[in-house]
Amino acid sequence: MNKHYPVGLMWFRRDLRVQDNAALYQALKSCERVHCVFVFDRAILDPLARADRRVEFIRESLVALDDTIRQCAGDPQSGLIVRHAMAEEDIPRLAHELGVQAVFANHDYDPLAVMRDAQVRGALANLGISLHTRKDHVIFERDELLTQMGKPYAVFTPYKNAWLKKVDPFYLKPYPVASYQAALAPRPTVYRKPVPTLAELGFEATNLSGLKVIAGAQGAAHLLADFLPRMDAYELARNFPAIKGPSYLSVHLRFGTVSIRALAAHAHAHALTGSAGAAVWLSELIWRDFYAQILANFPHVADAPDGKSRSFKPEYDAIKWVHGKAADTLFKAWCEGRTGYPLVDAAMAQINQTGYMHNRLRMVVASFLCKDLGLDWRLGERYFAEHLIDFDLAANNGGWQWASSSGCDAQPYFRIFNPVSQSLKFDAEGRFIRRYLPQLAGLPNAALHQPWTASPMELLAADVRLGDNYPHPVVDHAVAREATLARYAVVKKERT
Predict the structure, then answer these.
(1) pTM value?
(2) Which residues in the chain come in under a pLDDT of 70?
(3) Which of 72, 202, 208, 258 has the lowest CB atom count within 10 Å?
(4) Which of 144, 235, 239, 287 is catalytic?
(5) Does 284 participate in catalysis according to the annotation?
(6) Of 337, 475, 471, which is closest to residue 416 (Cα–Cα)?
(7) What is the CATH number of the domain that holds 226?
(8) Active site residue 163
(9) Which pLDDT score is estimated for 304?
(10) Among candidate residues 136, 163, 190, the one where a domain is terminated
């Protein structure tokens, strides 16, 4: 087979696997020899806290990827070249040093990544080296699904219908990387170094290992095997945070240690057999595609000139949020899980302790921030971005805009989650609340969801001291709801 290039460079980013990797497949098929690199990009890492579960997850996944590359190559000198530098400077430099004719990578839709890739493309072109990028992170991207008017979809349900109509085995077929893996090249001697330790990167260990999070493709395969027998029950089980309902694959999708094509293929095949759970899980995967194309086609949602996210619906930027010292106090209480609403506080304890939050609870706490506390949704968006191990810019922005009613959603602004009703409905026995708020464990179920209604005897028996070891509610939900309706009235005025 004639190959286009003698030497190529595969640049791994958010696709930390060998199996079913679009760019790696193209590189191996196009080049006689292929080197592999990952750059711990200082532009991303330097602003982070020194203990970050995501960095540790990436590092552990790279150790696994390095080993897999060596096994696939059948050469102990092969493996992953790992750098700690500014990617936009280092990739062209490394490509030149290795004498490659082409660099291969998968698309990244984040605005900063788009800018970085444009700079890398230009620098490589000046060296006579081409940059080839492929779709890998989604099933359909950018302009692959358009309305009859030739415009991007801005509402999910029509997008989902178009997605389901277009999808077929071709789009879900894995890339046969193994057929071409003989092209994986041994590393030059100077690059034969192990993956840097966290300390060498300037980071500290987190509690990731204690959370039993298995990084790399092996971890993703383990979770998928565990989830598939539970998939049929997903429609109902996914809503209850105390039970094992979700797939827990979100972090693996975020960093590409599992292929979206593999997951969508499982979901689609089972949905066609009539599995309601599989159909709902597939819908969640389609939401992921939807938000990715929103970010690509409407970059203002996360890429304004002043660096501040903008509402998808511009009229929602006219809302006057609570600000000043009162806002600061309320936001701090929300961040620390001291709102006085147990389900909200337990959810915030979950994210603070584990870097994960159940999806139902993400909606609850987001609604509480915007529509009970009256705080700008961008505050919550930023907090999630800093703390979620599965943080994905497109999905995070989309979720927060959905919660604030400013995004791609046909639902009106008066959708306001009642934190007590949500608690009673989805954690009726209080198992989740008791797990993360042990100070409330002794309360009877009837009082657990709203401790301020407990009798003095119930509080005494449970050793719950309101205002001491558990706070009074920071707001009255009924009052806050009326304030939110008044605050959002500006949207109606903007439309008239």
Answers:
(1) 0.95
(2) 1, 303-307, 409-414, 492-496
(3) 202
(4) 287
(5) yes
(6) 475
(7) 1.25.40.80
(8) no
(9) 58
(10) 136
